[in-house]
């Protein structure tokens, strides 16, 4: 071995030589995503279903759905006949993954440790042959929102550490071999949950996060008990059986206890006679008062809240969803009143878990008025179990007819998307119609922009926040438009709610057809100017191009903080970009800087303004489709990531959890 003659190096050179040698030992060169993927392919793709080539751009490879700054962020390899085991080392090198899916293959072996995927949001490993224990490493991925491991052979306990995942939105573990108890999941973000067809036992925790799910989420676990499945827990369910020694001790003492009991009963006979006489007197007094108290109680009950069919609902008084009365039939998916034609509470969502509450529970709930609009009044309903829903009472229950209303509810009830507020159930009777949605505690986009200002004079949001919100809204609106003949019909900032991760979610969609076409009632000024010019006549049906127009107006509201109390498009016309710049410059002069102060930020802001301008074209044929709009927004966001810097964050009024971070969910749009 040749020795290095260090005498010919200066002290400074020796220092740098030592430093770089040490650095090379401590920090080995990380393999590229292409190398990691090729290594993964070698372990799971014997049939060569993945035509990956090293000399090609990895972002154009089959199954690479999205890249971020040249790194793979969405890997979707579904139904490709992949076999073998997942290579832990290769997968963990893909540390920029947001979405990872191997759904519908024949992968085997244990789920590898995935602690290196620190940015992962969605994991789909369902419909494989995976075995071993639950991958507890998932509990350390704090951005994880979706875990789908259904249809495998995973065994062992569901780890308690899942409570660390504060953003958990979907947990599907059905059709496995899991044992033990269900952990007391308490994440308010949890909306989809299924552990059916396992070997779980014990009491189902009655946490607010789990009490909303009913039998369909727990089927096939014969040793489970709890209120969600209408199976009361006995001592056998809750704890170990008594030991043989304790049984013998109990038997030997039973004789003496029996003798004492006889003495107690004999001594109590005399007292019992006296008690009976006293009770007789009390009953007589109660009978005299019963009639008057019954009338008083009825009056108090009707004054509690929504009071469906009564005047209290119109005034928004009280605190209860009462007044309908009735009895549920104990059937999942439909709770009918006694008698004919009085209506029912119908749960929606094909394949969804039905909520574990009844019409009676809903009627007993305390309620708070959230707002009133052209379609009706909206309430926050808190049930006795603590479960909260949003109830919308439609203003006109005569149109359309009951059969047509039910068909439309079935269509809307099937919509499930992260940017669409799910419609969970509906009630209809001759004179009443109620819609039940998930409750969103973070409020609306209108409140975010304008705060408590009723004048609509809010402050423009930072351009990065505007881009994220715009992408959320465009994604949700495109999903709605992909259903033939379906439109939103009433898009505005007050009909956009903020989810658990402050994602923007559309609500009040698909209800425009429920208005009486002969109604003379005009929409409010604010609502009117969100609408496209060709749809401002309430008798005109909503269209998808009209939704695009409303979307453009909403983007202008984000950029300026101004609600469209006036027709902004007609007022500013071709000067809209100039008007937006002037409004934002006014905010800069007032000391609340909405821009980043660099040319890159100005370019992205201008790009978003241009998207809004083309959306609010007066001619419907000149407006882009929502698919085209979404592509423009995503292209702008992708470019923004390359030019972003430390100043590119939202202002203080925008939650720290909602900054310019990419939002990817593995859901088809």
Please describe the topology of this protein.
Blueprint: H1 11-26, H2 33-44, E1 64-68, E2 71-76, H3 88-92, E3 99-101, E4 108-110, E5 122-124, E6 129-131, E7 146-148, E8 155-157, E9 170-172, E10 177-180, E11 192-194, E12 199-203, E13 223-225, H4 235-238, H5 244-302, H6 311-315, E14 334-336, E15 344-347, H7 359-364, E16 366-372, E17 376-382, E18 388-394, H8 402-413, E19 423-428, E20 433-438, H9 445-450, H10 463-481, E21 496-498, E22 504-506, H11 525-530, H12 544-560, H13 568-572, H14 576-589, H15 599-615, H16 626-643
Parallel strand pairs: 2-3, 3-5, 4-6, 5-7, 7-9, 8-10, 9-11, 10-12, 12-13
Antiparallel strand pairs: 1-2, 14-15, 15-19, 16-17, 17-18, 18-20, 19-20, 21-22
Helix pairs in contact: 10-12, 10-16, 12-15, 15-16
Walk me through this protein's architecture.
This protein is of the alpha/beta class and 669 residues long. It has 3 domains: 33-234, Leucine-rich repeat, LRR (right-handed beta-alpha superhelix); 311-438, Phosphorylase Kinase, domain 1; 445-513 and 523-643, Orthogonal Bundle (Transferase(Phosphotransferase), domain 1), CATH 1.10.510. 33% of the residues lie in helices and 14% in strands. The chain contains 16 helices and 22 strands. A 7-stranded mixed beta sheet has the order 1-2-3-5-7-9-11, with no helix packed on it. It has a 7-stranded antiparallel beta sheet with strand order 14-15-19-20-18-17-16. It is flat and about 65 Å long. The termini are far apart.
